[in-house]
Structure formats: C-alpha cells, structure tokens
Design goal:
The structure is a homodimer of 361-residue chains. Chain A is built from twelve helices and 14 strands. Chain A is of the alpha/beta class and 361 residues long. Bound molecules: 3-isopropylmalic acid (IPM) (2 copies).
C-alpha cells in the first residue's frame, strides 16, 4: 500500500474542530483506497505561541520537513492581536512556512456551488449558474519578501519603505502553472498587473506574453488590477484563471472568495516545486464561533482533497471527495454559515456535516 | 463679482460631450450666483497626442498653471493603446499632472443614489437604503512615484523593481484630510493598509494613530487591504471614510465605485495644498459610445460641483447642483447606462440630462 506522511497543523479558533472532520475523511479514504496517511500533529499560530513560545515553533518546522505535505487549519484570534506584526499567529507562521518550503504557487479557487448561489452578495442575474475562478498567486516573491524593507529616520522625515521585485525566472515559473491549470479548465488566463505604473508589471507582462506562446490553445488577456477589482464585481463569469503577483493575488483572491458568499467552503493550496505542498482553508479562524462545534468543515475537507490531488497524485480520491461535498449540499445539508432557511435545507453541526460527506464517499 | 479661471481639458471619447453639459451648468451658476468662470480649453490625452504630439502638451501645462482649477474630462481609447505605457493618454497625462501640481489628495466618493439601487451588482438587502463611502487616496507618493524603479539584467535574471515609500509627513498630511472629511460626514475613518507585511504600512498605521488623537470625535479603525476588498462586498455600509495609500486606494476606490453600479455618476477631486485642484469623472472615456450624444454627463457635472466646493469655496452652489441631480434622478430622468425600464423612468440623451439638471437649479 502507498503511504504518505502528513504534518497536521490545526492552529487556532475553529481550526481544531474542522481539522477533526478532515482527518475523518482521510480515514475514510484509507479504507476505500489502498493507502495510508501517517499523521503528526504540531502546534502553529496562537497554539504555537502559547505552547512553545512562537507562532512557528522549530519542532513544527522539523515535523513539516519530515512530511510529504502540510495540512493546515487556521490561525489567529483576539488574544494575540496586540503582539508585534512579525510575531502574530498569521504573519509569524504563514510567511516563514512559505519561505522555508519554497511554496511559490498559491492556488485559490473561488467557486459558487450551484446549491449556494443564495449566499453571495451578488444579484442572482449576475451569478446565475454560478462561477468558477481559479486565482493563481505567486507566493514567495514580490513586495512580500524583497529587500530593502524597513523604517528609517525620525520625526516627520521618518520613512517606511518596501521593495517590489520580480525576476523573469520567478514570473516564468508561476506563469507555467497558470497556463497548465487553464488547459484543464476553461482555457483562459487573465494576467493581472499594473503595467501602466509598475516596472515590475512591465516585466511581468513581457514574460507572461512570451510563455503564453507555448500554449496556443489557451487564450491570454491582461488586465490592470484596479479594473480587475471592478470586473470581478460586474461580471465574475468572464474569468477562468487569474494570474497574479503576490500582493495583487492577496487582494484579488480575497475579493473573489467573498463574492462567492461561502468563504467556509473554499480550500487553497500552496505548492513548492515537486510534490510538496501546504493546504489550508481560505477563511479565517472565526474565534467568535470556536469551540461550539458549529463551524463549517467543508473548506478544510476540500483542502485535504487538494492535498490528495496535488501532493499525492490521488486524483480519483480527490474527485470523489469533491463530488461527495456537492451531493451533500444538493441534499440540503447546511452548517449555520450557509443555512438560508429553505424548505429542502437541514441545519447540521460540524461533525454531522463531516459524517454526511463521509457517508457519500 | 468673483471671478475664477478654469482650465478645461475635455480629452477623448465621451469627454467632450459630457464636458459640454458641465460647462452649461457653470453658465447657469454664473447667472444664479454673482460669479464668473473664465475658461480656457486645452488638449489632453489622445487629443494631446494627435494635436500636439504628447498626452500632456506643454501648452496645456501652462494653461493649467494660469488657472485656479482644472476641469478634466476623460482620456484614452483603442487608438493609443499600442503606445508605450509612459506615452499612453491615461498614464502619460494623469501621473505628470498629479506630480506637477502636487495633487496629493484624491477624493473618490462611492455613493448609491437611492433612485438607482437597481443598478448595483449587489443584492437589494445588502444595499437597501444605499451607501455613501468616501475613499481618500494619497496620490503623489507610495509605489507610484518612489525610486529606484526600473528593469535590469538579461535572460532569466532580468529583474523588474519598484519602491514603495512614505514619509511620516506625507502620511500625516493625507490623514488630516481624511479626518476633517469624516467630521463633516459619518465621523468614522477606516485606514486601509497591509501592516502585517509592509514596513510602509507599519509607519502608516503609527502616524494615522497619532494624528487621530487630534480628532477624538472621529472613530478610527484599521483594516488590512485584503480584508477591505472582502468587506466592501459583504457589507459596504460599514464604511464612511476609507483612508488609503496610492496603490491600495487605486484598487479599493475602483471596487467601491463599481459596487454602486453607476460609474457614470461618480465624480472625483484631486487636491493640492491650498485651493488648487483637478476634477474628473471616475469612469473612463467609453470609446464605444463616444460621439453618439448618449453618455451620462452626471459624473462630469458633479465633478464641476466638487470644483465649486473645494477650489472656489462655493458651497451653496455645489450643494444646489448635487440637489438638482438628485431631484432629476427622482423624477425618473435616465441616460441609457442607468435606464432600467421602470414605469417612472424617462430615457434621455446627454444634453437632455444636462438641461433637466439646469432646469432644477
Ligand atoms: C496573513 C497574511 C500575511 C497573508 C498574506 O497576505 O499572504 C494572508 O492574508 C493570506 O492571504 O494568506
Ligand atoms: C491611469 C492610471 C495611472 C491611474 C492610476 O492608477 O492612478 C488610474 O487608474 C486612476 O486611478 O486614476
């Protein structure tokens, strides 16, 4: 039997609760397919700070290094909000993880499930039939990690500065991912930049153009980021794959996710070269509902499915999980966040939702 | 009688048509109030390129320098899209104008007019009663204008780079504008940054906090830009004044504008220290409908009203124009872009809309 090792980092807030359901799903996959997942739990985020003194403890890094993939819950909460930014759960865990493991490619699907169009803030005629956008975000370069960066001077001269930088090689690498992904989907890439203002974007556009020549079957367009922020609101269906730098991808992927109206449903993958990756829900740690057993576990379960697909090449199992989620939604199962009070809807808690999905597997 | 000089830069596309209506409104203001507006026409954008060889001709700069304010139409169109970014109508006219005239403060209202809630992509229950956001965007600093900036190297090492930079003095200046504006509105400022990643934002937040102490009557909150892009979609009514750096303001103001559903209605002001300012519609030059006399002149007319308010201190006249627009909309007058086919609606062309507004003045 195949065997994979998974570093399990539940984190804070609803993280542990929804992670429990994802692990139950992995159990079910073990039973159905000839595979085993060796899991090692580790602290991260606020749990890292409280138990081991920092958001990304060294032991956690070691455990991740010994694993084939990281399944990540969510981090953060009011308790740690007054720490300096560098030490806070989100920033203090996520940025180092991305850097240490070379997670240059962030895949953030923004999908409206047909059963859930009601949850979107957008009018029905704008989203009729749903939409399905994949944001491909560069994750280890750009203004997040380039230097110089700092604060200097005193008084009114005190100055903060950051550097945005991309090499052709970095742009090339992420562009290939976007075009490969588009081939398996709607065959369209829209590259988001600000080439009318940023030199980084001028290079970005030039490289994207060049790489696109290798994919004559995929349609390429370019859009300025300010226009993209508008077009997402106006007509999200026009997009298939959106290719973004680190900073623009941060903003655009969150906007697109919120337009679906179901943040609790959206997984994400952060991939290194090779098969290593980190998988996490797009939503946050939702401290307000933590510990009540009512959080929506679907984003975490779909993140586990992405892990099977991208790190373990278990495409059939990943497809089966996605299909099970769809059936369960069509059958009316709803956690509180997606409950609309319709006739066909059954309100369930976190573990009931997990069980319903497993029953469909 | 008071007398003011106005540089009139109609630009491209629908610019000249909607500008004609704004000038008619200025005529009406001259008649009603004891004032005269001395206007000088000048080329800008594609019209500048075609007639004088560049997007911002020197004669245009001179005319603007001799004026008390600039009334700007809109620039750009397919004809000039293949020029290098620096020379294109938008970038080649707007960025130098901002720099030359020190237009550090960009005010971009995003308002849903009660009569037009139907035009928004957002569901009725999200926008019931409308919303009224003022984006205050820093316009002469940040990653737009800081150096170094360029492209270096060859092959896969070829690297594009930009610098984001803010001094405490720059942040202070724009923060005061935001708080002063909030005082006259909903008394709330939400400052948008990415302090968990950018040093610039750490300084930004520190300065905003300090300045806010001078405005104990105004409530301050901070929000990361990715979250702001989401919150705008989820619940726009939570915002009053949004204070943004140059880059984030570019994205956030466009998203907010599109959420209103009526881009053709939104004016903007770009202010220097003192009373000089440039006033322009938020929408583009709409080349697809140019020359047909059907464009919506309201954004241009409301831009003229902002000019009266901010550069000429003619508050009563500005209020009167705003009120006239509101009455005309309530009376059902609609250009094609905002026509929904309702019983009470009368479809009108550009000049009929201008006339209707003047009749109310
Ligand atoms: C926590 C923060 C540093 C992070 C980012 O900006 O990348 C988060 O917003 C995300 O998108 O994963
Ligand atoms: C044309 C472009 C340089 C400009 C900007 O980015 O500021 C425009 O998008 C705007 O917002 O006025």
């Amino acid at each position: 039997a195949n065997s994979f090792t998974v570093a399990v980092l539940p984190g804070d807030g609803i993280g542990p609760e929804v992670m429990a359901e994802a692990l139950k799903v992995l159990d079910a996959v073990e039973k159905k397919y000839d595979v085993s997942f060796k899991r090692t739990l580790a602290n991260v985020g606020g749990a890292g700070i409280d138990n081991e003194g920092k958001a990304l403890p060294d032991t956690t890094v070691d455990i991740c290094k010994q694993s084939d993939a990281i399944l990540f819950g969510s981090v953060g909460g009011p308790k740690w909000e007054t720490l300096p930014p560098d030490e806070q759960p989100e920033r203090g865990a996520l940025l180092p993880l991305r850097k240490i493991f070379g997670l240059f490619c962030n895949l953030r699907p923004a999908i409206i499930f047909p059963a859930l169009t009601g949850a979107s803030s957008l009018k029905d005629d704008v989203i009729k039939g749903g939409f399905d956008i994949l944001v491909v975000r560069e994750l280890t370069g750009g203004i997040y990690f380039s230097t110089p960066k700092g604060i200097e001077g005193e008084g009114s001269e005190k100055t903060g500065f950051d550097t945005m930088k991309y090499s052709a090689a970095e742009v090339e690498r992420i562009t290939h991912v976007a075009f490969e992904a588009a081939r398996k989907r709607g065959s369209k890439v829209c590259s988001i930049d600000k080439a009318n203002v940023l030199s980084t974007s001028v290079l970005w556009r030039e490289v994207v153009e060049r790489v696109s020549k290798e994919y004559p079957d995929v349609e390429l367009s370019h859009m300025y980021v300010d226009n993209a922020a508008m077009q997402l609101v106006r007509w999200p269906k026009q997009f298939d794959v959106m290719l973004c730098s680190n900073m623009f991808g941060d903003i655009i992927s969150d906007e697109a996710a919120m337009l679906t109206g179901s943040l609790g449903m959206l997984p994400s993958a952060s991939l290194a070269e090779g098969s290593f990756g980190m998988y996490e829900p797009s939503g946050g740690s939702a401290p307000d509902i933590a510990g009540q057993g009512i959080a929506n576990p679907i984003a975490q379960i779909l993140s586990a499915a992405m892990m099977l697909r991208y790190s373990f090449n278990m495409v059939a199992a990943a497809d089966a999980i996605n299909a099970a989620v769809e059936v369960v939604l069509n059958n009316g199962y709803r956690t509180g966040d997606i409950y609309q009070g319709g006739d066909n809807e059954k309100k369930v808690n976190t573990s009931e939702m997990g069980d319903a999905i497993i029953a469909q597997l």
